[in-house]
Specification:
By secondary structure, this protein is an alpha+beta fold. It is 33% helix and 28% strand. Strand 6 and strand 7 form a beta hairpin. Helix 4 packs antiparallel against helix 5. The longest helix has 22 residues. It is globular. The two termini are 23 Å apart.
Length: 193
Amino acid sequence: MARFEVVFKTEPTENIVEIVKEGHIDFDFWGKLDIQIDGQSFFINFRSEYYDKYYEGTSSISNQGISTPVFPMLEAFIKGIVNLKKEKEVVIEEYTGQISKSLVCVDYGNGENIIFAVREGEDFFSEKYIWYDGEKVSIQKEIPISKVNILKKDDFIYGCFESVNEYLSSLIDKYPKLKEIPYFREFVEGTGL
């Protein structure tokens, strides 16, 4: 069993209580999303030379992960968990359109395994996409396969669920006043955690 984790690294100086109270949580609370498999970052092989060659100067992806608005991405993972149980392909992407990266998960084999990779943008007319598969960046139509991007579907789902739960619990422990804010309470209740 591989240990799959979704890790949100957020700035400790963020005033999240005020951001949530003011209703700006979807746009003003950002962090780095790291994916770890057995304690190793999925982004460890991402090289800075990929920026100029593949990402046209955007800096939302690096060897530390993907810069993303935290709550829209948390919600995307929650929906992704639900959809992955019944669909053969799931795209996990934050709904505000602030970043152009998504995590694509595709059934591999008999439904017990999945392949996942980070895809740049969503262009329905494109013949090829820019992918990062945990080892390298490539340009191709189909999701690439590497030594690190194939997992048991149950490990992926369990890891996503546990990671979201742990992150929200850590926020509540660190900022207990969040529980007093209706939006935050509704968000946590809506996750089913």
